[in-house]
Every structure is written in structure tokens, then in C-alpha cells.
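Students often ask why inverse folding is considered easier than folding. One informal answer: many sequences map to the same fold, so there is more than one right answer. In these notes we will look at a single instance of the problem. The structure comes first.
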């Protein structure tokens, strides 16, 4: 039942990096609490939970999404029609139904740069069983041609771009390699032109897992291209792969980006897991704080903070972890990840009466009874709780169900 079990061996985990050459979204501003926006977000949540494209597709403005991908590209009418048809309407649902997601939960409506988004928190399912990697998707809501609210794009906080921008980059490569798709005397947007001229180099950077190769290829790029998000993210990724050997290099790459975009969470979403794995807890907590300023209050960030407190092995570690777990439950009283952490902490502190209260809450939320003996068979502290009079009395009144 120990949520930090197996994590002590993890160093330098970095989520998959998606390219981008724009700045991330602004900090949130007040969002009008309109019933129409809330109803649209509720329908989206139901479709995501059901993982049902038939419920999903009517909520999307596919034509608007295609236009966001293709707008401004100097391509022939035939190419535009063909590429538009190639944008599968299932692309956006597929982005939400990721196989490595442990959870995909609606948090709130947020307004960024004057546009309303439905914000979702994603907890990444890691092979070691921990749930310490987090990301955010924000679904852009706009009024469609018939004046109904529909979703037209997804902003991905880890990559710092909308999904339409990632697809646009794929098409740039296709168009750049096939002149027959281009208009005569094609005039590119400056950002597109910069990437078109360096597509081969960019693909080489994105396709490599060797940090020295990535860094050498970055050094050969034009200076203005080196400052784009795509290159900066891959530079940080390369530094993360070397964090054991060259910890200062990673810190320097992060610090340089922070000067340029202090409120941008993209690098923090990469860096906090590295600093947690390398025991740089002050930097870890600062990164989590910056993520929270951008995303808003999120119970799972407190779960991550609580886990970090336990990893530090300080005399007050359990008390600090309990504080963060309780704070998480203030934000979401039924959040299971927070209840699990709180239960672990209470078991370590041998607060068995409180453990029983938390266990009862977990079983109420899940509508299941938990076999503490079986779940905690490899954890001596949990086994001690299972032998306690408090647990035996609780289980006598609340027997296990098959």
C-alpha cells in the first residue's frame, strides 16, 4: 500500500516531448460561470468516461479544427482538400483516450487569453506503479456556425501547444518534401518558413535518444531556431538523460528558460520529476508551486507533494505528508489518491483509529471492501495495522465482500 514503493530507483523521468514554437497559454483569468459552458464540459466528461466516439463527435467542430491546422499554408486547393480529408475526426478523441492515462478528470472551466477552456488533469500510468507524473489538457470551447458551443482543439500543457499545431507541423514536413502540393511562388509564414528550411535537422533532433547527439545537432542550428520551444524542450530532455553525470547542465538549461518564460509550466512539468528523483526538493517544490499557479488548485499536486515529503526521510516527514494529504482532501474530499496517501501516512504513524476512518471513506467512495492483509502483504507496517484491534473491530462490523 506504500505509494512511494519502487520510486526511489527512478531518476530523471521525463514525459514524451511534443514540439512547439509558441509561448504557452497565459495564467487563468476569471471565467463566467455560464450554464452553457458547464453543460458542454459535462457532456465532454461523460463522453470521455464512456470512451465512446459516438458521444464524442457531436461535441466537436471538426471543420474549425481542420481550419486551425491548415490556415495560412500555401498549398493548392486540391492539396488542401486532400489534407483536410486526412484529418481524422477521431484524432481529438484519441488524444483524450490515451492508454497510459491512469485518470483523466475534469477540474474546472478556465479562461486564457480571453477564450474559455475545459481543463482536465491527467495522471500518467507508470510501469513502476507510481502516479507522480501529471499533465493537463485544456479543451477550447467556441461558438460554432449554428451558435452552439463546441470543442475545436486541445491545449497540452506538457508540450505547450495545441494539438492542431502538432498536426500542422506534420503537414509542414509533408508539404516541404513535395513541391507539387505547394502553390506557385508559395509564401510561407515566418515561423513555418523557419521550420521548413530546417525540417531535416529538426527531425534528426526529435528522433534521437542520445543526449550528446541531440546537443551537437542543436548547436548546428540557426540561433533563432535554437530559441524555439521544440529545440529548448529537446535540449532539456537531453540534459535530463545526463542528469546523473551532469546535474548542473540540466539546472542551467531550466534556469535559462525560466528567465524567458517565468509563468510557463511546460518546463516545470518536465523538471519536477527529475528533481524529485535526484533529491533536489527545494527546486521540486518550487516547480510544483509554479505549475499550481498556472493550472489552479489541484488535489493531485498535493498528493505529489505528500509523496515527496515521505521520500525525504526527515523526522517530520510523516507530519508534512499528512498536511499535504489533508490539503488535497480539502480541494477534493473524495479524491482516492489523496485518501490512499493519507492512509499510508496514518499507518506509518500507527494512528490506527484514524486509519480506520480513512479506510471507511475509501470503501464508501469505491463501493468496495479492501483486503488490507492481501494488499499490504509486503509492507510490515500495513501488516501491523491488519493485526490491530481497531482494524479487526472494523472488519467484524464491515466484513470483506467477494
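Output (designed amino acids):
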Amino acid at each position: 500500500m506504500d505509494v512511494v514503493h519502487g520510486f526511489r530507483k527512478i531518476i530523471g523521468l521525463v514525459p514524451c516531448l511534443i514540439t512547439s514554437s509558441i509561448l504557452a497559454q497565459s495564467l487563468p483569468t476569471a471565467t463566467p460561470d455560464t450554464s452553457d459552458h458547464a453543460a458542454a464540459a459535462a457532456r465532454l466528461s461523460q463522453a470521455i468516461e464512456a470512451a465512446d466516439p459516438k458521444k464524442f463527435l457531436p461535441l466537436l467542430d471538426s471543420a474549425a479544427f481542420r481550419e486551425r491546422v491548415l490556415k495560412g499554408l500555401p498549398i493548392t486547393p486540391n492539396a488542401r482538400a486532400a489534407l483536410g480529408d486526412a484529418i481524422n475526426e477521431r484524432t481529438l478523441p484519441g488524444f483524450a483516450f490515451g492508454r497510459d492515462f491512469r485518470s483523466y478528470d475534469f477540474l474546472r472551466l478556465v479562461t486564457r487569453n480571453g477564450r474559455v477552456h475545459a481543463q482536465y488533469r491527467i495522471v500518467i500510468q507508470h510501469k513502476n506503479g507510481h502516479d507522480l507524473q501529471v499533465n493537463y489538457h485544456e479543451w477550447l470551447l467556441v461558438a460554432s456556425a449554428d451558435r452552439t458551443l463546441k470543442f475545436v482543439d486541445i491545449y497540452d500543457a506538457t508540450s505547450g501547444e495545441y494539438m492542431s499545431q502538432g498536426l500542422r507541423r506534420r503537414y509542414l514536413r509533408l508539404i516541404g518534401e513535395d513541391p507539387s502540393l505547394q502553390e506557385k511562388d508559395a509564401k510561407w509564414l515566418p515561423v513555418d518558413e523557419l521550420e521548413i528550411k530546417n525540417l531535416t535537422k529538426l527531425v534528426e533532433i526529435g528522433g534521437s535518444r542520445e543526449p550528446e547527439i541531440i546537443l551537437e545537432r542543436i548547436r548546428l542550428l540557426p540561433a533563432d531556431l535554437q530559441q524555439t520551444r521544440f529545440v529548448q524542450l529537446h535540449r532539456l530532455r537531453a540534459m535530463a538523460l545526463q542528469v546523473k553525470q551532469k546535474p548542473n547542465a540540466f539546472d542551467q538549461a531550466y534556469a535559462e528558460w525560466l528567465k524567458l518564460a517565468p509563468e510557463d509550466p511546460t518546463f516545470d512539468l518536465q523538471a519536477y520529476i527529475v528533481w524529485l528523483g535526484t533529491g533536489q526538493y527545494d527546486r521540486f517544490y518550487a516547480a510544483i508551486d509554479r505549475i499550481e499557479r498556472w493550472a489552479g488548485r489541484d488535489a493531485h499536486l498535493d498528493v505529489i507533494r505528500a509523496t515527496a515529503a515521505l521520500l525525504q526521510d526527515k523526522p517530520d516527514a510523516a507530519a508534512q505528508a499528512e498536511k499535504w494529504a489533508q490539503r488535497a482532501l480539502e480541494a477534493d474530499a473524495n479524491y482516492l489518491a489523496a485518501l490512499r496517501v493519507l492512509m499510508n501516512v496514518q499507518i506509518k504513524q500507527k494512528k490506527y483509529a484514524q486509519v480506520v476512518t480513512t479506510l471507511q471513506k475509501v470503501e464508501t467512495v469505491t463501493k468496495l471492501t479492501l483486503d488490507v492483509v492481501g494488499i499490504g502483504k509486503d509492507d510490515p507496517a500495513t501488516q501491523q495495522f491488519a493485526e490491530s484491534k481497531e482494524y479487526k473491530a472494523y472488519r467484524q462490523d464491515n466484513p470483506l465482500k467477494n
